[in-house]
Here is the input.
Amino acid sequence: MTILHEPRVSSWARGHLLCRVDGVSDRVALTFDDGPSPRDTERVLDVLARHVAIHGDWHLPPPMLPPSLLRREVERSALAVKRAADVTPRHYRPPYGLMLPSQARFARELGFAPVLGDVYPEDALRPGVDRIVRRVVSRLSAGSILILHDGSAHLEMSRGQTVEALEIILQHMNSHGLRGVSVERLLIAAGAESAAPAVSSGGGSP
Here is the structure.
């Protein structure tokens, strides 16, 4: 499907990027890149609770940027989110999913947790609603971080396929007991579940 799902690549990425969150039983993080789009973002928001993170102002792969420009990318994006939504973002998705370990450390020093994901159906290429849905439901599980697109980085492009697929994906999640949340809430849920006391499944008195 995509290089992200190649075992060697995903193993390398998980060494320095947040790709999924283990220890959570019923939630999935839904993330959207390259918006906002005047045509499609509102349609996405019609079926989702709010999700906020940053993705870069220029949409250039971080390996192409020296530290000074990477800092500019991250900080300008964060400022744009703050101005638009009055929310201070805490996560950063590297454009094209490319980020070196040293750059991930640099992003953390700036106060942003770098996030990739573990499910990417390549919806940005508009392969068709059915294919987007199949690629997602075949891989999605509790703790997953799903990468979708509500806009386009360089050319105005319809994301209608993503919107239609999202409706079906959410129905699938609901039927399988999965809730869609932000990355931050997924991390919080994992911490809460790991801190919860164990519950015996056996019979008898406690």
About this structure: Residues 67-85 form the longest helix (19 residues). The chain has a mean pLDDT of 83.
